[in-house]
Specification:
Elements: E1 13-19, H1 42-59, E2 64-72, H2 80-93, E3 95-106, H3 113-122, E4 126-132, H4 136-141, H5 148-161, E5 164-171, H6 178-191, E6 195-200, H7 208-214, H8 223-239, E7 244-246, E8 249-251, H9 258-264, E9 268-272, E10 277-281, E11 287-292, H10 296-306, E12 310-315, H11 318-329, H12 338-345, H13 351-359, E13 363-365, E14 371-373, H14 381-389
Parallel strand pairs: 1-2, 1-9, 2-3, 3-4, 4-5, 5-6
Antiparallel strand pairs: 6-8, 7-8, 10-11, 11-12, 13-14
Helix pairs in contact: 1-2, 2-3, 6-8, 11-12, 11-14
The structure holds S-adenosylmethionine and iron/sulfur cluster (SF4).
Length: 390
């Protein structure tokens, strides 16, 4: 099913803000997140964010901001004044669309009604909560510091404070059977706001889970069970009116994450803060791939001396743009427009490759002539993308 959020010619322009701190490090997580028991000098970070925003605005004059996303780390550890200061600075550097989606990621351990009202006053209109599991035993196994009860409370506070909200769950956990997951997911769908992110547990490099996995102390579901878990997910979410619009993201029609759609539709965005990525258009229409220094205090020092924290800034070749476009766009149930692939790369898809993938039931053409991955293709998405890109 295609996304209800209209496919626009121009996927839009967004601003990503990375807050790199957490109360503790979860054993499965390889995001750029750090624990600072001594506290964080938010004023100093705010000034550095302002400097980076000014720097990026000079590279993207005249754009209209269609979405802002505070990701982490745990942005719900930020003071509402810091969030307000960043949104204000974005408004001083670009025009913000009055309908812009402004999302903040929150961890249930740091959710309080007053703090949430502070974010709302700052301009945030959507919250994405990291619930991860719906029972205490599994939350503990995931190393989470909150209980299921606290998570449900946070979901309720989010829904009563903001017009739009979402929560994340991690499935395909050690020992999780398809029956367990079906029960848990049903409970989640009964509480779900307009959007849910459902991620299969991945064993990421350099995490505690990787060490346990390599030592044989942690087992993830085998391929058949993982496939059953995937099927249960697709079936139940569709039944509850929240089909996947992206491989791990589900929404009621119109409830899609507009910010993430900018990434998946290969639009333009700047990223500020430690370890943030951006893709901005050059005057010739090519893309600059940008990334900042990931270490928080190092990033501060660089921004304070240079006015920005970029450590990578390269113009992508047409070929590299084509690869990224496929990698992003084929995650979406709406698929991709072959004409845009041709415009980005200067070449067409190899007809025999597309025909082969169709014959194997991996991709299909939509009525609008877009190419999308089928439900058979999604569990092996990486292979499908590699085949089409070759
Ligand atoms: C940047 S984190 C999130 C937000 C917040 N700090 C929290 O944990 O509640 C974004 C999401 O990625 C997912 N995630 C992180 N590591 C993962 C992994 N190894 N496998 C699957 N999902 C993962 C989690 O669902 C998490 O909520
Ligand atoms: S999952 Fe969230 S809270 Fe846990 S370490 Fe990663 S970013 Fe921090």
């Amino acid at each position: 099913m295609a996304s209800a959020f209209p496919i626009l010619q121009d996927p839009g322009f967004g601003v990503y803000v990375h807050w790199p701190f957490c109360l503790s490090k979860c054993p499965y997580c390889d995001f750029n997140s750090h624990v600072r028991r001594e506290g964080v000098d938010e004023k100093r970070f705010l000034d550095a964010f302002k400097a980076e925003l000014k720097h990026r605005a000079a590279l993207t004059p005249g754009r209209e901001v269609r979405s802002i996303f505070f990701g982490g780390g745990t942005p719900s550890l930020m003071k509402p004044e810091t969030v307000a200061g960043i949104i204000e600075a974005i408004g001083q550097n670009w025009h913000i669309d009055p309908q812009a989606e402004i999302t903040l990621e929150a961890n249930p351990t740091s959710v309080e009604a007053t703090r949430f009202r502070g974010y709302r006053s700052a301009g945030v209109n959507r919250v994405s909560l990291g619930v991860q599991a719906m029972n205490d035993k599994d939350l503990k196994a995931l190393g989470r510091m909150h209980t299921a009860e606290e998570a449900f409370r946070a979901v309720d506070i989010a829904a009563s404070t903001f017009d739009r909200s979402s929560f994340d769950l991690i499935y395909a956990r050690p020992g999780q059977s398809p029956q367990d997951w079906a029960k848990e997911l049903t409970a989640a769908l009964e509480r779900a706001p307009e959007h849910l992110s459902l991620y299969q547990l991945t064993i990421e490099p350099d995490t505690m889970f990787e060490q346990l996995f390599n030592a044989g102390k942690l087992k993830t579901p085998d391929v058949e069970t993982a496939r059953e878990l995937w099927d249960v997910t697709q079936e139940l979410t569709a039944r509850f009116g929240m089909p996947a619009y992206e491989i791990s993201n589900h929404a009621r029609p119109g409830g899609e994450s507009r910010h993430n759609l900018i990434y998946w539709r290969y639009g333009e965005y700047v990223g500020v803060g430690p370890g943030a990525h951006g893709r901005i258009l050059t005057p010739k229409g090519l893309r600059r791939a940008q990334a900042t220094e990931p270490h928080p205090e190092m990033w501060l020092t660089i921004v304070e001396s240079d006015g920005h924290g970029l450590v990578e800034d390269e113009t992508l070749s047409m070929e590299a743009q084509g690869d990224e476009f496929l990698l992003m766009g084929l995650r979406l149930s709406e698929g991709i427009d072959p004409a845009r692939f041709q415009a980005l790369t200067g070449r067409r898809f190899e007809a025999s490759r597309v025909a082969d993938l169709i014959a194997h039931g991996m991709v299909e053409y939509t009525r609008q002539g877009r190419i999308r991955v089928t439900s058979e293709g999604f569990p092996v998405l990486d292979a499908v993308v590699a085949d089409l890109a070759a």
